[in-house]
């Protein structure tokens, strides 16, 4: 099963996260299938590769709670519903 989840990167006390599609059995810093976005909570910046995210959602990937909130805030699920 594939999940969309956060992968931590950055310095100590200044964490940034990559949003990745990764196999469930992999660790947090394990090898990702594809990087589909970037999230910086300090600056509240988000970059999302929308076509890649929609592709993984159509194939059955499950987002974690935090990633789900980020995608919902960006309006990805409205686009996902219209593609079905």
Protein described:
The chain is α+β, with helices and mostly antiparallel strands and 84 residues long. It has one domain (2-83): S16 Ribosomal Protein, Chain: A, CATH 3.30.1320. Helix content is 32%, strand content 39%. It has 3 helices and 5 strands; from the N terminus they run E-E-E-E-H-E-H-H. It has helices at 50-58, 65-74, 76-83, and strands spanning 2-11, 14-23, 34-40, 45-48, 62-63. The protein has a 5-stranded mixed sheet. The longest helix has 10 residues, at 65-74. The protein is globular, with a radius of gyration of 12 Å. The two termini are 21 Å apart. 21% of the residues are buried. The model has no long low-confidence stretch (mean pLDDT 89).
List keywords for this structure.
84 residues; five-stranded mixed β-sheet
Order of helices and strands: EEEEHEHH
Give the mean pLDDT.
89
Which residue ranges are poorly predicted, with pLDDT under 50 across at least 5 consecutive positions?
none
Supply the CATH superfamily name. Ribosomal protein S16
Number of helices: 3
What portion of residues is helical? 25-40%
Structural Rg: 12 Å
The strand count comes to 5
* Widest sheet: strand ordering: 4-3-2-1-5
Largest sheet: 5 strands, mixed
End-to-end separation in angstroms reads 21 Å
Shape: globular
Q: In what range is the share of β-strand residues?
A: 35-45%
Fold-level CATH name: S16 Ribosomal Protein, Chain: A
Structurally, the number of domains stands at 1
SS class:
alpha+beta
CATH class: Alpha Beta
Based on the coordinates given, report the CATH architecture.
Answer: 2-Layer Sandwich
């Amino acid at each position: 099963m594939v999940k969309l989840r956060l992968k931590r990167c950055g310095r100590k006390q200044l964490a940034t996260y990559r949003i990745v599609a990764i196999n469930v059995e992999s660790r947090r810093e394990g090898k990702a299938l594809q990087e589909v976005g970037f999230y910086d909570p300090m600056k509240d910046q988000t970059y999302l590769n929308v076509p890649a995210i929609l592709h993984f959602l159509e194939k059955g990937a499950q987002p974690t709670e935090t990633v789900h909130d980020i995608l919902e805030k960006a309006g990805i699920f409205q686009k996902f519903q219209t593609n079905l």
